[in-house]
């Protein structure tokens, strides 16, 4: 007799696909975790990383008990303590900090370890407690903000195409996105389009595995995409293929934008982007005459000084071609803005207005005014810019650091108190994909191992320990889920039963048929809001730092790009032995010409360095990158890497043009034998 049951869940990771999964539980133990074939977008496949999720939940290095540090900060030496000891020590310290320095001395540093609406990023976990204490607000801008803002100036929202409609596109531009690595479920819609005759172009400084599969790859110079967008539109105008009717009826500022386009003839764009003029022209002609054209641009493109402007310029393309008229036309960056769940920010709980601290600016922000850093679902020592300065800031003796974690990351090593956290099979959550149009339910499948607690339960217990009386601090996870779903008109029963529900929009979904949520109600080539924010009024080209610096002024000759790794999700899974093995360890791609001039041989260990610091990697000599560009994936744990650092040791803590986004793909480095 089979006593097993199946439990529906969702992948919590910061990946656009948010897969639906099915956990089989036997005698209280999860025995398998598989993709859910019933899900219309993810259709049963997970990925190389999450195929190992159950193994990861039982990993030997999983944190199972609260810990108190016994060695110096960074030593990673801890003793096991009870939850009572941990919570009473924390409550005492927080109460004293609030009394002496005010609540704003607490920085709740929340990352993207889970995108859950209950346990994570977008959600309720902690916010109510932090508001009651008057803690600083945390701006989680690390990932996609510059691009979001760029899109907002044009469309009024970062929301765009339903990715499923790429099946209907006849020209697909995969622009600054590595689909087969960072959200591979889109690929079958790309393939469906191809079967119907679509042409697929990858625009990426790296010849990625996605570029390998495309019909054409344009190896653009990093940080010059807006110039390419304008150059392609230049050809569209030469061809007389602009959609005059659409422009007149649905856009704002055409004359001024057309004058901007006029500044970017193909020859000039070839010089800026490093692409051959005839290939730019050929793509421009294709764009001019292929409807619908679907553009998939994701976050890679905006991790630059001019990243917001790049997304803004790309967003203008379908305004000129009229592609927003058609299913399969337009731009798809993220679907988050279509999600109707609106977590109540509960400002009413604040004792007084509070400051905002910026996630991308941890090294700068962690000054004397911060007395408690509370890290959850984040691994700043692996993922945030300027690692060495963060390490120094975390070493401060008067800083009280609490880290809620599943694994003993580099960041954990700097904690005063470590609190063990549940994983996705062990807690309840609600999710929304940012690359599809479905809401997801995650039912807890098993009891947590050891003494792990969910984020919500940890905060409920801490509130009790601190004697706080605000009733909403004690809402259960199910109550929180109901508060989210109810106002959005989503039935808890339905989503729980099926594991997912489609957002309440037409299928196929074509956005902006009723206008754009901009001040003018039109697609804005010219934005007064941008002007008021000190940005160019007219969409245009803002080069990245490395693109705008003359060779003689560059402190180091090479541009480093640090994209998604195929085997990790940010730093998550980079401690899994099998995935670490498959990653082949920290590597840096170097063009044969740059290798030769430095006397490098394939496989040799090198230092990649600049004034911020250095990291160690094995050289992979390859024409997958152009001369002048080197690439090293994000995600390796510093302490598991030779030299104790990862690429963020050389990444500047510097702002993109919009939203204070990070500049992970816009740094000068050089490479030398170790
Ligand atoms: N396997 C895996 N999947 C992931 C992640 C992961 O770590 N691993 N991370 C997840 C997260 S957090 C996010 S935000 C998304 C990010 O996923 P993506 O948006 O795909 O982001 P990146 O990997 O940073 O960059 C994508 C591509 O953009 C290219 N690129 C860099 N600079 C430029 C440029 O100036 N112009 C152009 N045209 N291209 C450029 C890079 O070479 C890279 O191939 O993926 C998610 N999915
Ligand atoms: N060089 C370089 N660096 C980058 C990027 C890049 O392109 N290049 N990309 C950036 C991007 S896009 C992002 S989104 C950031 C991500 O940066 P972070 O938000 O710091 O994400 P991770 O590094 O994955 O760390 C997440 C941690 O959360 C933990 N975790 C997961 N679920 C839970 C939970 O439910 N509770 C608790 N308490 N912990 C949990 C995991 O174990 C993991 O250690 O990294 C950025 N860093
Ligand atoms: S990381 Fe992405 S592709 Fe992999 S299981 Fe999670 S949602 Fe699916
Ligand atoms: Mo991200």
UniProtKB/TrEMBL annotation:
The keyword Metal-binding applies. It comes from the Bacteria. Residues 4-61 form the 4Fe-4S Mo/W bis-MGD-type domain. The keyword Transport does not apply. Transmembrane segments: none annotated. PANTHER family: OXIDOREDUCTASE YYAE-RELATED, TRIMETHYLAMINE-N-OXIDE REDUCTASE. This is Molybdopterin oxidoreductase. It comes from Microbispora corallina.
């Amino acid at each position: 007799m089979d006593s097993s049951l199946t439990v529906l869940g969702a992948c919590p990771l910061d990946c656009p696909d948010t897969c639906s999964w099915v956990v089989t539980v036997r005698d209280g133990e999860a025995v398998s975790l598989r993709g859910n074939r019933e899900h219309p977008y993810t259709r049963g496949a997970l990925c190389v990383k999450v195929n190992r999720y159950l193994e990861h939940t039982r990993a030997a290095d999983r944190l199972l008990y609260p810990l108190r540090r016994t060695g110096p900060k960074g030593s990673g030496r801890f003793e096991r303590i009870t939850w009572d000891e941990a919570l009473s020590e924390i409550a005492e310290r927080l109460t004293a900090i609030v009394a002496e320095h005010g609540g704003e001395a607490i920085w709740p540093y929340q990352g993207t370890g889970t995108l859950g609406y209950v346990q994570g990023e977008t959600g309720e976990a902690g916010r109510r407690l932090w508001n009651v204490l008057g803690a600083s607000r945390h701006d989680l801008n690390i990932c996609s903000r510059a691009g979001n803002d760029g899109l907002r100036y044009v469309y009024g929202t970062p929301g765009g195409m339903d990715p499923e409609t790429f099946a209907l596109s006849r020209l697909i531009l995969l622009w600054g996105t590595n689909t087969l690595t960072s959200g591979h479920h889109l690929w079958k819609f790309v393939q469906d389009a191809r079967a119907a005759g679509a042409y697929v172009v990858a625009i990426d400084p790296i010849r990625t595995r996605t570029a390998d599969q495309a019909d054409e790859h344009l190896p653009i110079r990093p940080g010059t995409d807006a110039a390419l967008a304008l150059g392609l539109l230049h050809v569209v105008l030469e061809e007389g293929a602009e959609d005059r009717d659409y422009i007149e009826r649905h856009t704002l500022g055409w004359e001024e934008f057309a004058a901007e386009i006029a500044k970017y003839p193909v020859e000039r764009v070839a010089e800026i982007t490093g692409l051959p003029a005839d290939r730019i022209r050929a793509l421009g002609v294709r764009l001019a005459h292929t409807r619908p054209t679907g553009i998939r641009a994701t976050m890679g493109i905006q991790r630059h000084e001019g990243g917001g402007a790049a997304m803004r310029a790309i967003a203008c393309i379908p305004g000129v071609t009229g592609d927003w008229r058609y299913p399969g036309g337009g731009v798809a960056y993220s679907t988050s803005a279509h999600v109707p769940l609106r977590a109540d920010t509960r400002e009413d709980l604040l004792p007084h207005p509070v400051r905002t601290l910026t996630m991308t600016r941890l090294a700068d922000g962690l000054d004397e005014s911060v007395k408690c850093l509370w890290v959850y679902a984040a691994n700043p020592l692996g993922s945030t810019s300027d690692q060495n300065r963060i390490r120094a800031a975390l070493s401060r003796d008067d800083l009280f650091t609490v880290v809620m974690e599943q694994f003993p990351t580099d960041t954990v090593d700097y904690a005063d108190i470590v609190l063990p956290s549940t994983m996705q099979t062990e807690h309840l959550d609600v999710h929304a994909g940012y690359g599809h149009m479905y809401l997801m339910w995650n039912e807890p499948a098993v009891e947590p191992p050891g003494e792990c607690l969910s984020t919500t339960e940890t905060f409920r217990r801490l509130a009790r320990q601190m004697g706080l009386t605000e009733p909403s601090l004690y809402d259960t996870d199910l109550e929180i889920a109901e508060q989210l779903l109810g106002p959005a008109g989503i039935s808890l029963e339905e989503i729980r039963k099926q594991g997912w529900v489609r957002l309440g929009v037409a299928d196929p979904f074509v956005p902006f048929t009723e206008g754009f949520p901009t001040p003018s109600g039109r697609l804005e080539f010219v934005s007064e809001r941008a002007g008021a924010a000190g940005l160019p009024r007219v969409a245009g080209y803002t080069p990245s730092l490395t693109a705008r610096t003359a060779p003689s002024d560059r402190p180091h000759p090479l541009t480093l790009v640090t994209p998604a790794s195929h085997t990790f999700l940010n730093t998550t899974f980079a401690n899994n032995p099998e995935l670490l093995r498959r990653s082949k360890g920290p590597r840096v791609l170097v063009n044969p010409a740059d290798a030769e001039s430095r006397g490098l041989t394939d496989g040799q260990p090198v230092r990649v360095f600049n004034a911020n610091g250095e990291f160690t990697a094995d050289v992979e000599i390859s024409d997958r990158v152009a001369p002048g560009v080197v690439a090293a994936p994000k995600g390796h744990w510093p302490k598991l890497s030779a030299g104790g650092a990862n690429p963020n040791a050389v990444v500047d803590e510097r702002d993109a043009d919009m939203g204070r986004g990070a500049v992970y793909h816009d740094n000068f480095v050089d490479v030398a034998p170790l």
